[in-house]
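Priority: medium. Attachment 1 of 2:
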């Protein structure tokens, strides 16, 4: 089993009660959009956020796609709240557990970026030797940034 993978709609669906998922799926539709496309875009954005935190630590190696499996629940905690915010902020959150889980997920990602929470090396790692991660950017070493 690979140690990096993507999060899917099926993964996210497990976070919701059946009636809740039905409402979420239908309300996410915007005129001219397909619900699955909207959901895929939300999940891609969440994975990009996780990947950004992982890439922020020089010790971490990156896969071409996906996120470390050890951060899958972290990503889903964020995605769950993101879905509700897409619904106009109507978060169904008994006792604030979903928002608390999201806050803990962001804290965990900050630990990943600081190198305090280790992630596994992907089965096939990208060559990031030409990334200039020391400055917090994703530019290449050969490029020069002029800052006023």
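Attachment 2 of 2:
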């Amino acid at each position: 089993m690979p140690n990096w993978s993507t999060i899917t709609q099926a993964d996210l669906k497990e976070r919701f009660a059946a009636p809740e998922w039905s409402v979420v799926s239908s309300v996410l539709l915007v005129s001219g959009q397909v619900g699955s496309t909207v959901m895929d875009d939300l999940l891609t954005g969440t994975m990009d956020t996780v990947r950004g935190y992982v890439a922020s630590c020089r010790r971490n190696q990156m896969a071409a796609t996906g996120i470390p499996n050890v951060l899958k629940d972290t990503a889903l905690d964020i995605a769950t709240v993101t879905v509700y915010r897409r619904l106009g902020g109507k978060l169904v959150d008994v006792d604030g557990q979903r928002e608390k889980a999201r806050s803990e997920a962001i804290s965990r990602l900050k630990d990943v970026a600081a190198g305090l929470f280790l992630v596994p090396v992907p089965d096939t790692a990208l060559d990031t030797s030409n990334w200039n991660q020391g400055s917090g950017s994703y530019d290449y070493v050969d490029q020069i940034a002029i800052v006023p």
